[in-house]
Amino acid sequence: MFTEFKIDGDAEEPYVDVKVYERALPLLNKLESWVRYALAEFRDLKSSYAKTMFRLLKQFRTTGYAYFSKEDFFELLDMPKSYWNSPSNVDKFVIKPIKEELTPLFRGLTVRKKYGKGRGKPVIGYSFTWKPEKKDANDFSQGQLQDERQKLFNIQHNGELTEQEKWRAIDKVKGLTLGSTEKQALADKQAEHDKKIRDQARQEALAELRKGFGNHA
Prior knowledge:
alpha+beta, Arc Repressor Mutant, subunit A, three-stranded antiparallel sheet, two-stranded antiparallel sheet, 8 helices, 49% helix, WH_DNA-bd_sf, Putative replication protein rep, Initiator_Rep_WH1, plasmid
């Protein structure tokens, strides 16, 4: 967002000169429409990309839709130039953490790529949609327990996240080591599978016993 800055600490009244990315000016000129958010939510985000996108999406919190051209998306998130021709890096290191960390905070969050015409159908933009908030909605903390319940609900009922992304998102919300929820989920699945095998074996054994009794009758 800031393309240049100059610090003069030796002046009688020290100051900082900042040059703002021109296309970001509308965001700064409409602060009242996007600075409203709980500081705790922002503070708990780990990815710098998720933090920046959180601030940007909050500008549109009551509309539930935001679109960024590829140029603006790269500039506003200050991505490495090497990512420009590497969609896989954008997906892995930018989009993935944004989805995992913001899905708990934006109900029904989806991220879509817009493709242009021409060879290879290049990505030309990114759109974000979610359930819009009411203008008078109380979107601040309702208490740690209730906040966590809402975040987990948003994760579990988001059809865009893969199972692995949901597990990682849950780990982050609960403050667990990444992989903890996945490990427990896989263990639960294995236990359920083993139980089905045991139940099936028991049913087959009972059927054989009944068959045996029937033959002796």
